[in-house]
Amino acid sequence: MRNKVISALAGAALLMGGAAAAQAQDALARIKEAGVMKVGTETAFAPFDYIDAGDHVGLNMDVFAAIGEELGVEIEWITLDWAGVLPGLEAGQFDMVAGPATITKARMERYRFTPPIAEATVALLKSAKDDSITKPEDIAGKTIGSGHATAQLAQLEEFGKTLTPAPETKDYVSFNEAYADLAAGRIAGVANSLPNIAFVAQQRPEIFAVVAPFGTKTYFGFPGLKDDDHASLMDAIDAAILKMKADGRLGEMQQKWFGQTFDTPDAVTEPNI
After folding, report:
1. What CATH number is given to the structural domain containing 40?
2. Nearest-angstrom CA–CA distance, 116 and 197
3. What is the block-wise mean pLDDT of the chain (273 residues), using blocks of 10 residues?
4. Which N-terminal stretch is annotated as signal sequence (predicted)?
5. Which of 98, 164, 194, 252 has the most CB within a 10 Å radius?
6. Structural domain contains residue 5
7. Neighbours of 250 (CB within 10 A)
């Protein structure tokens, strides 16, 4: 009986020791042990992330494939609407967010951002046949759409306060829905970051046209959790992106997906918004 008790205690000690070891590992160690990094994203944010003929494509795919190679892990994509992406990160559904997201003061208080991977300054997309909008101020009194819970919508609303009469804003679950309403004539424009709407206009120049940017200069980055457990993971991802920037791979990806490159800082410490 004594031997059985000792054996049971030893087994319990091993289990507790294994659990303690697992808890001692940080996010990067757990990811490397599993060989997989889970990345949350939405697939309605071309050209960063979208579905083309059934395939998941975009700048995010290329950048995270390279990050995965640097870390020695596979990338597992978890897709959902943008409104659920950041809450999903905080709930532990995935390790990192692709997005990307506009780097703002409010978001930096809650999340840690990677080095910028593109410019995010807000501009307007209009109908190619609409001659009434030639500059941002021309949206006064018109209905303009943007994405729900996005920095682009917030900037549109702030800009609208400077106009008389103020434009009516309409928010959408995805920007693709906003583009569809614009094409159908149900709204007069869509406010989104310049790289996104430039891509949309390039794909369908007979339908859409770009109006000059109106927002404050901002940048896109990938958000992760801002805690000690994820510090080494974010350090590793930062290093991988800066390496891609230094050796020209990031510029090649930007050229591939945007038709241009962006002069971005290595880090954003004081966002403009």
Report:
1. 3.40.190.10
2. 19
3. 45 46 81 98 95 96 98 97 95 96 96 97 96 97 96 95 97 95 98 94 95 92 98 98 98 93 95 93
4. 1-24
5. 98
6. no
7. 25
Half-sphere exposure of 185 (CA within 13 A, CB side): 2
The alpha carbon dihedral of 265, 238, 50, 260 has a sign of positive
| Residue 269 domain flag | no
* Distance (Å, whole) CA 245 – CA 126: 33
* 234-249 pLDDT tens trace: 999 999 999 999 999 9
Q: What is the 3-state secondary structure (H, E, C) of the chain?
A: CHHHHHHHHHHHHHHHHHHHHHHHCCHHHHHHHHCEEEEEECCEECCCEEEECCEEECHHHHHHHHHHHHHCCEEEEEECCHHHHHHHHHCCCCCEECCCEECCHHHHHHEEECCCCEECCEEEEEECCCCCCCCHHHHCCCEEEEECCCHHHHHHHHHHCCCCCCCEEEEECCHHHHHHHHHCCCCCEEEEEHHHHHHHHHHCCCCEEEECCCCCCCEEECEEECCHHHHHHHHHHHHHHHHHHHHCHHHHHHHHHHCCCCCCCCCCCCCCC
Rg of the chain over Cα atoms, rounded to whole angstroms, equals 22
Which pair of tokens denotes residue 49? 């992330």
Instruction: Count up the domains in the chain and report the number.
Output: 2
Greatest distance between any 2 Cα atoms in the chain: 91
Query: Residue 88 sits in which domain range?
Result: 26-118+220-258
What local confidence, expressed as pLDDT, does residue 6 receive? 44
